Amino acid sequence: MPQTGIPIGRQGKQQELQMADRHGRYYTASYAGLSAFAANQAGAVITLFSATPGAYTGLCLSNPAASTVNLVPQTVTGALAVATTGITLLGLVTGYAAAGITVHTTPLTVFSSKLGTVITSPIMQGLADAAATLVGVPTWTRTFQTLPTTVTVGSLFNVDLNGEIVIPPGGYVCVGATITATAAASFWGSISWEEAPI
Predict the structure, then answer these.
(1) What is the pLDDT of residues 173-194, one digit of tens each?
(2) Contact (Cβ atoms closer than 8 angstroms) between residue 128 and residue 100
(3) What b/e readout covers 153-186, taking b as 16+ CB neighbours within 10 angstroms?
(4) Integer distance in angstroms from the first to the last C-alpha of the chain?
(5) CB-hemisphere CA count at 13 Å for 43?
(6) In the beta sheet, which residues pair with residue 129?
(7) Which of 4, 94, 157, 178 could form a disulfide with 49 if both were Cys (CB 3.0 to 4.6 A apart)?
């Protein structure tokens, strides 16, 4: 006979345990102060993708070489407010170098996902930039959407990476454009992530 006060799990016909989440997928990390986000605070240009390291603008999340955590991207969102001059692919670019990104031309503010809270322990270690110098070998990793020329309608994307990519110290992810770079002051984006022990 089960003990009083201990809940019994519910099983289905094939004796599988049936469960329901009490909170959303990212609640626990956010509540614990382990989740953060950053966003463009002004329209940006996403530079044309290149497999050669160099100057980049758009939205980039990087993990410093001295970091003691892995960054696990949660969601990446974005939209274009100005039409492009040609067909444009938007997606995710990833890269790595042991020393990590060291030139942060236009840093973005990193916020705790627990709004209004100053998290002092642990302190967020991920860095976000609207402009930075990419290192290593930038690699086209995911395609989010394609936009025909002169069109902004439907440019919004909201991608859940679902823990698929882990950014170790020295690594980075950024929103990339290929075929045609986006127009001036056109891109608005955001990225959220969890910081997990290595």
Answers:
(1) 999 998 777 777 789 999 999 9
(2) no
(3) eebebebebeeebebebbbbbbbbbbebbbbeeb
(4) 43
(5) 11
(6) 60, 107
(7) 178
Q: How many CB atoms lie within 10 A of CB 6?
A: 6
| CA 120 remoteness from chain centre | 22
- pTM summary value: 0.86
Three-point CA angle 132, 135, 136, nearest 5°: 160
At 31, is the secondary structure helix, strand, or coil? helix
- The span from the CA of 111 to the CA of 96, in Å, is 24
- Alpha helix ranges (H) inside 39-156: none
Across 148-186, the runs of DSSP E, i.e. the strands, are 157-160, 171-178
**What count of other Cβ atoms lies within 10 Å of the Cβ of residue 148?**
11
